[in-house]
Amino acid sequence: MHLCYIDEAGNGQTLDPARPDAPPVLVVGGFTVPRSQLKDLTWDFLEVKKHYRPQLRKAEQLSEVIQHEIKGSDVRKNLRAGNHQWRRAAMELLASLLDMLERHDARLLARVWVKEEGLAFDESGVYPASVGSLTETFQAQLAHEHSRGMMVLDSRTKVKNAPNVHCVTTRKYRTGGDSLRGVIESPVFGHSDTHTLLQVADLVVSSLLFPIACHTYMSDVTWNVHCDDAYQPLREQFGVRLKKLQFRYQDVGRKWRGGIVVSDRRTQQSSSLMFGPNKAAALPLIPGQAGTAGDGVPLLP
């Protein structure tokens, strides 16, 4: 069995100079992990939190460590506005994150939507479409692994949650057969302070994919706070590792699908730019080798 954890970074705000903090992209994504690796991945992540938040080493209850979150938005802030020590700690935290995912056979999947300046962005349509697409990728992985699985989405509000799973539910129970038979139930919702691995999904999406996409596809939008050159090292240092962590598959027409997919209606640039400057087509992927995170220093509380 496999589990899939999904979070998002960004929202439906219109990209406009009057709103310099409006997210230039929306990312919906996360990772999958074999059930056999679930507990070890969780314990490794708790140790990473203790390393980068030393105050947690003195916690009297395990729940304190579980509930304490290192938010991706804080990591981005350290990269943009922190001193050398904070930037170094942020990069080492992200290296540790990728080490964990590689070590425990995780696979990345995401939809990245690049906004067009001044045009309304239909989050209510894009988000469910993203969940539907990610479910297809998850189903393809489950079929490849001869496995079953379940998806856990970061909970928003009931009004926002419900439409995001209807597309999956109807596909599972419509007349003509279940096209998502490996996914044993429609996606369920969790809170990051109770589902620890949703915190990992947040870091993947918010502190890696979101800033890399902002810098890669929107670097000319200099008035937006999220389009910062401070994010350039993320792609340079982690792009190849992110590429290798994807799950990609070929459909019936032999076209490659899945992994981290970018919809760039603004400049029509390739998804492969997320992983480096070359525009070579994505290749079949295998697990990457674990890297080293370095000694590290604590992040800001």
Folded structure, characterized:
By secondary structure, this protein is of the alpha/beta class. It has one domain (2-275): 2-Layer Sandwich (Nucleotidyltransferase, domain 5), CATH 3.30.420. 42% of the residues lie in helices and 15% in strands. It has helices at 38-52, 62-67, 72-81, 84-103, 123-145, 158-173, 196-218, 232-245, and strands spanning 2-9, 25-34, 107-114, 149-154, 188-190, 248-250, 256-258, 260-264. Residues 278-301 have low confidence and may be disordered. It holds the Pfam family DUF3800.
Secondary structure topology:
Blueprint: E1 2-9, E2 25-34, H1 38-52, H2 62-67, H3 72-81, H4 84-103, E3 107-114, H5 123-145, E4 149-154, H6 158-173, E5 188-190, H7 196-218, H8 232-245, E6 248-250, E7 256-258, E8 260-264
Parallel strand pairs: 1-4, 3-8, 4-5
Antiparallel strand pairs: 1-2, 2-3, 6-7
Helix pairs in contact: 1-4, 3-4, 3-7, 4-8, 5-6
Keywords:
single chain; 301 residues; alpha/beta; Nucleotidyltransferase, domain 5; 6-stranded mixed beta sheet; two-stranded antiparallel ribbon; 8 helices; 8 strands; disordered C terminus; DUF3800; DUF3800 domain-containing protein
Q: What is the gist of this entry?
A:
The chain has 301 residues and is of the alpha/beta class. It contains 8 helices and 8 strands. The chain has one domain (2-275): Nucleotidyltransferase, domain 5.
Q: On the 0-100 scale, what is the average pLDDT?
A: 89
- CATH top level assignment: Alpha Beta
- Counting H and I runs of at least 4 residues, what is the number of helices? 8
**Helicity, in percent?**
40-55%
- Within the CATH hierarchy, at the fold level, what is the topology? Nucleotidyltransferase, domain 5
- Percentage of residues in DSSP E strands: 15-25%
Task: Give helix and strand order, one letter per element, not per position.
Answer: EEHHHHEHEHEHHEEE
How many domains would you count in the coordinates?
1
